[in-house]
C-alpha cells in the first residue's frame, strides 16, 4: 500500500465520511458549563461501536456521569514516534433555534455543506481523524509507532471533565511524542497564487475578569434616593469598548509580511493596523487573524444586574474574556484594567486564569512531516510555512506539560472564498469537500509520521 493508494481510499470513502459527520452532529452534546451537561458519553459509545466494526478496540473513560472520553489505539510494531489525534465532542449551546436556517441537530446537507451545531467545531475534525484511523486499519498499514485517537469532553468550558482530567488521572493513556489538535490549518492566499500556512505551535493565554460594581438600591419610583448601578455599567462598557491595547509585532509572521506582500516598510506597532487594513484587499477576512496575533483582547461577554423591575439595582457584575500574548501576565492585565477604570468608584476586579500562554518547539521532525503531507495532498511544491499562535485556547495546553509536541493544525479545503463556518454561531456548517481533504490530510500526516522514517 502506497500513500497515493491510501489517499484514493479516502476519496472512495466520501459517502462514509459524510455519513459519519452527520451521525456525530445529530447527537446533541451541548455543554452549558453547569452540571449536569455534555452528554458526550452517548457520542463516544457511537464511535466505539463504529471502531469495533473495524476491529479497533477503544475505551470510554467517564470523568463524571455522561462525561465520556473515548480512547482508541492502533499499536505500532517498532520504536518510532507516537501520534495522538485529538478532537473534542462537546458543543456550545444554541441561543435561538428559530434563527437557524435548518434545525441545529439535523445535519442537513445544502449546497455542499453540512449544517448543524458542532459540524465545524469540532466534529469535522473528529470525523476526519476517525476515518483516517479506520482507513489505515483497513489497509493493513504497518506503523512504526502508536496512533492514538482521543475524542474528549468538555473543551468548550475548560477541559475539567476532558483532557485536563485525562492528563491528571490517565496521563500515560494520552502521552505521545506528537499530537494534532484543532485551532489552525487554513492558509493565507498570496497575490502570486501561493499558499502560506501557519503551523500554530502555541496559544494565547486566556483570563476571565469579573468586575463587580456597587451602588445603592431604592424604589424605582424615587430613583434619586439611590445610586443606580446601571449607569456605572454603561460607563464601564463605554471604557472597555474604547480600550486600545498596546500593539505587539513580535510574532514571526510580522517579520515576513513585507517580503510576502511587497510592502514598502517593516511592520511596527504603530503601523500594524494600517497594514492589516491594506492586506484585507488581498486576504479578505483572513487578514483579521493578524489582529489577534498583535494585541491583547478585552471583551465583555456577560452582564448581570437587578433583582426586580421596580427596584433600583445596587450590585452588578460584568464578565470579560481576555486573551493575552505570551509576555502579558496577570499583573500586566490587572494594571491595564485598573488604568482603564480609573475614576470609576466602587469597582472590584477579580482575575481568574483559564489558560496560560503555552507553546511547543517549531523546529521538529513533526513540522517537516506536516509540510510534506500537505504538499502531497494538495499536489503543490510552492507552499510557504511559518510558525504561529492560536488566538483561542484549546486542550493542547494540557498535553504540552506531558512532554508532547502539539500543533494546532487541522487543515481542510484550501480553496479561496469558502463561506465561513460560523463556528459557535447561527447556521454553523462545514464544507463537505473540506471533510474529504481533512481526512486525506490526517492520513498523510499519520503516514509521514508513523510509516515513513522521520529525520
Attribute tags:
single chain, 455 residues, alpha+beta, Aminopeptidase, Alpha-Beta Plaits, 3 domains, six-stranded mixed β-sheet, four-stranded mixed β-sheet, 23% strand, globular
Question: Care to describe what's here?
Answer:
- The chain has 455 residues and is α+β, with helices and mostly antiparallel strands.
- The chain has 14 helices and 19 strands.
- The protein has helices at residues 3-12, 14-25, 40-53, 123-139, 163-169, 171-174, 229-241, 252-261, 272-283, 289-293, 330-340, 365-378, 396-399, 432-450, and strands at residues 58-62, 68-74, 83-88, 108-110, 113-115, 147-152, 178-181, 188-189, 195-203, 205-214, 218-219, 297-305, 311-312, 315-324, 347-355, 358-359, 384-390, 405-408, 429-431.
- The longest helix has 19 residues, at 432-450.
